[in-house]
Design brief:
The structure holds 2 protein chains of 2 kinds. Chain A is of the alpha/beta class. Chain A has helices at about 20-30, 40-60, 75-85, 100-115, 130-135, 160-170, 190, 240-280, 305-315, 325-330, 335-340, 345, 360-385, and strands at about 10, 70, 95, 115-120, 140-145, 175, 195-200, 210-215, 285, 295-300, 320, 350-355. Classes of the chains: A alpha/beta, B alpha+beta.
Chain lengths: ~400, ~110
C-alpha cells in the first residue's frame, strides 16, 4: 500500500483532477433535471442554452468561432473524426508527426490500410518538427498534415504557425491535436491556421469522456457517427449534456487562470528538475527546454527501469507516470522517445512528472529525494542482476 | 473494426499452413488493432491462463513479429510457432511461470 502520509500528484499530463467549481456546476445541472415529462419542451430549451453556452466557452479557449466547435467524447474521437472524416481516397497522402499521440497515429495507419499513402514527419532530438521538411515533403497528392500543439509525453511544443502557413498556401488540411496543450498555454486555431483542432476536457480539469473538434468554417467533414441531427449532423447522438457543460466551465476557468498557473507551475517544475539533477547523477531530460509545456518534466535515469521507478515513487506518495501507459504495460519503449532518437534502453528508463499548481515549494525537496532514493535502489538491483539491460 | 476474444480455434476452411500449428487453448483476435494494443491484450489473456497453456494470437500488424517475441522473452513465455497467412500473422504463445520482471523494492 502506498504511503498516504504525504502525497503529491505529479501526473497532471495524464489527467487533471476535476476542478471543484466544475463539479459544482455539473451537480447543479443534474439536480435541476425536470422529471415531469410535460416540462420536456422547456427542458430541451434549457439543454440548448447550456450547449450553446458551453460551445462559446470552448471556442474562446480554442481561438475559434462557436459554430466551429463540434462536441465529441474526447480528443481520441476528435482525432479519429478529423482523419477518417476528411474524405481521403486511395492514393491520397497524409503526413503525420512521428511523435503524435496514438489516437492520431492509429487512425492514420488504418487509412493507410485503406489505400492512403502515409509518411511520418521526422523530429529532431528535442522532438521538434522542422517546417522546412514539411515544405519539401508536400506534394500534389498530399491532403492532410497532422502535427500536435504539444507532446503529451515530453511537453515539447511544435512550430504551428509556420506549418499552418505552409498548409494554407498549398491547400492541405492541417490537423492540430491540442489535447496536451489545452489549459497549459494559449490555443489559437485561427493564428495557427488549423483546419481541425482537437481537445479533451479532462486535460484542463474538466470531466472525463468529453471533448471537442474545432472544424474551420466551411470545411467538409464526413461524420463517423451518423443518424441524428445533433452537431449539424456531423456527430449524431444525444449530447453528453452534463459533460459538455462541465467542459465549458473548465474551459472558461482554464482561460482565466492560465497565465498565472503556467508561471507558477513552470517555476516549480524548473526547481524540481534542478533538485533532481543534483541528487540523481546521470538523469537525462527529454524534450525541449525552450519550447515546452510549463509543467512537463520527462527524464530518464539510466539503470533504473521507468515502470519500477513509478511504482517505487507511488509507494512513497509521489504519483508520476511512465509517459505512456500503453507502451509501459507492453514493455515497449515509447514511440515518442524513439522518434527523438533516444535509445530503447534509455527510453525504458523514462518517467514523466507533470506538475500541478497545488504543488508547494516544500514538496520539491522530498519529491526529489524520493526519486533519488528509488533510483539508487533500482540502479543497485540492475547492476547486480546478470544480463540486465532493461 | 472490433476485436473479440473467443475461446475457440479459427473456423475450418482456412488454407492449411506449411508446418503444423500447435494445439491452442485460447484464441485472441487482434485484427485491426495496432501495436502495442495486441501486446496488451496478449498480456491480459496470458495472465488468465494456466501455466503451459497455449494462446493463439492473430494480428494484421507486422510489428507484432518484433513485439511479441520480445515480450515473450522478457516475460519468460515461449513463442512456439509463427506463420503468415495472407495479410494476417498467427503466433502461438505458451505460458510459463513468470519470473519477477519488475524488481520489488523492499521498504
Amino acid at each position: 500500500m502506498p504511503n498516504l502520509g504525504r502525497s503529491l500528484y505529479l501526473s497532471h499530463g495524464l489527467t487533471r483532477p476535476l476542478d471543484p467549481r466544475v463539479a459544482r456546476l455539473m451537480a447543479g445541472l443534474l439536480q435541476e433535471s425536470p422529471r415531469d415529462p410535460s416540462l420536456l419542451p422547456s427542458d430541451s430549451v434549457v439543454a440548448e442554452r447550456v450547449l450553446e453556452e458551453a460551445r462559446s466557452r470552448v471556442a474562446a479557449l480554442a481561438g475559434a468561432e462557436a459554430e466551429e466547435v463540434l462536441f465529441t467524447s474526447g480528443a481520441t474521437e476528435a482525432n479519429n473524426l478529423a482523419l477518417k472524416g476528411s474524405g481521403l481516397q486511395p492514393g491520397d497522402e497524409i503526413l503525420v508527426g512521428s511523435t503524435e499521440h496514438l489516437s492520431v497515429q492509429h487512425p492514420a495507419r488504418t487509412l493507410e490500410k485503406l489505400g492512403a499513402r502515409l509518411r511520418w514527419i521526422p523530429v529532431d532530438g528535442e522532438g521538434r518538427v522542422d517546417p522546412g521538411w514539411v515544405v519539401q515533403a508536400i506534394g500534389p497528392a498530399t491532403r492532410l498534415v497532422a502535427v500536435m500543439a504539444a507532446n503529451h509525453e515530453t511537453g515539447t511544443l511544435q512550430p504551428l504557425e509556420d506549418i499552418g502557413r505552409i498548409c494554407r498556401e498549398r491547400g492541405v488540411r492541417f490537423l492540430v491535436d491540442a489535447a496536451a496543450a489545452a489549459g497549459q498555454l494559449p490555443l489559437d486555431a485561427r493564428a495557427w491556421g488549423a483546419d481541425l483542432l482537437s481537445l479533451s476536457a479532462h486535460k484542463f480539469a474538466g470531466p472525463r469522456g468529453v471533448g471537442a473538434l474545432v472544424v474551420r468554417r466551411g470545411l467538409r467533414l464526413l461524420p463517423l457517427i451518423e443518424g441524428g441531427v445533433q452537431e449539424g449532423g456531423r456527430r449524431s447522438g444525444t449530447e453528453n449534456l452534463y459533460g459538455i457543460a462541465g467542459m465549458g466551465e473548465a474551459a472558461e476557468l482554464a482561460r482565466r487562470d492560465m497565465e498565472r498557473r503556467a508561471e507558477r507551475v513552470g517555476r516549480l517544475r524548473d526547481r524540481l528538475w534542478e533538485e533532481i539533477q543534483s541528487l540523481v547523477p546521470g538523469a537525462a531530460r527529454h524534450g525541449s527546454t525552450r519550447h515546452s509545456l510549463p509543467g512537463h518534466l520527462s527524464f530518464s535515469v539510466p539503470g533504473a527501469e521507468g515502470e519500477a521507478l513509478v511504482l517505487g515513487l507511488w509507494r512513497r506518495g509521489v504519483v508520476a507516470s511512465s509517459g505512456s501507459a500503453c507502451f509501459a504495460h507492453a514493455g515497449k519503449p515509447s514511440h515518442v522517445l524513439r522518434a527523438m532518437g533516444v535509445s530503447d534502453e534509455l527510453a525504458l528508463c523514462s518517467i514523466l512528472f507533470a506538475v500541478g499548481e497545488e504543488m508547494e515549494e516544500e514538496d520539491i525537496g522530498w519529491a526529489a529525494a524520493a526519486t533519488a532514493e528509488v533510483a539508487a535502489r533500482l540502479r543497485l538491483v540492475s547492476a547486480a542482476s546478470p544480463g540486465s539491460g532493461t | 473494426m472490433t476485436t473479440s476474444e473467443i475461446n475457440r480455434p479459427p473456423q475450418a476452411g482456412v488454407a492449411a499452413p506449411a508446418a503444423p500449428r500447435p494445439v491452442a487453448h485460447r484464441y485472441l483476435d487482434t485484427v485491426g488493432l495496432f501495436c502495442p494494443i495486441p501486446i496488451l491484450k496478449t498480456a491480459e489473456a496470458v495472465r488468465r491462463m494456466q501455466t503451459s497453456e497455449v494462446l493463439h494470437v492473430v494480428s494484421d500488424d507486422r510489428v507484432i513479429l518484433i513485439d511479441l517475441p520480445a515480450w515473450c522473452k522478457s516475460h519468460g513465455h515461449r513463442l512456439l510457432h509463427t506463420e503468415q497467412e495472407g495479410r494476417q500473422y498467427h503466433l502461438f504463445v505458451q505460458k510459463f511461470e513468470r519470473p519477477q520482471r519488475t524488481p520489488v523494492i523492499a521498504d
